[in-house]
Amino acid sequence: MANDPPASPVRRRVALAVLAAATVGLGLFIHRSAGGMIGDVTGDALYAVLIYLLVALVAPRARRPVVAVFAFAVCTGVELLQLTALPREAAVVFPPIELVLGSGFDARDIVVYAAAVAAASVIDIVSTRVIIGAASGKTTGRPPEGERPV
Fold first, then answer.
1. Residues near 97 by Cβ (< 8 Å), separated by ≥ 6?
2. Which residue in 23, 120, 149, 150 could disulfide with 52, CB within 3.0 to 4.6 Å?
């Protein structure tokens, strides 16, 4: 089934950890170099993808839709937390925490989180299908060369 996790949670965790590290690196690059709305939206999307990857890393056997819903809930919770003074106060004590908790509520961020988590989930499901299909020898839906379909 498309939503079934792959057979090896260890391999999945390694892949997720590498992807999470790459996402952090790309996110920090975007944070430092891109500005304006494009930088903001891209950063929000990468944040949501990172949360998806971290949830999947913690629960590698979880179904992808469950991972997606949980990741979106975490992102939304952090965004709603920005309606309070807590993120700003925490950033005064430890400035890098602003990268995790944000600095100000923006409803658009929730829409970006939903789209990014949905995209991450779809990519996760499709890539898992491709990997499992390749491992089982089902690389294409076509019959071998020279054979006719039944």
1. 87, 90, 91
2. 120
DSSP three-state, residue 22: helix
Tokens of 16: 């997720």
65-109: pLDDT as tens digits: 999 999 999 999 999 999 999 999 999 999 999 999 998 999 999
The rounded distance, in Å, linking the Cα atoms of 86 and 14 is 34
Residue tagged 């499992």 (tokens) = 132
Q: SS3 for 85? A: coil
Q: Which of 39, 14, 15 is nearest to 27 (CA)?
A: 39
Helix (H) or strand (E) holding 121, with range, is helix 107-135
**Residues whose CB is less than 8 angstroms from the CB of residue 43 and which lie 6 or more positions away in sequence, other chains included:** 27, 30, 31, 34
Q: Where are the domains of the chain?
A: 9-135
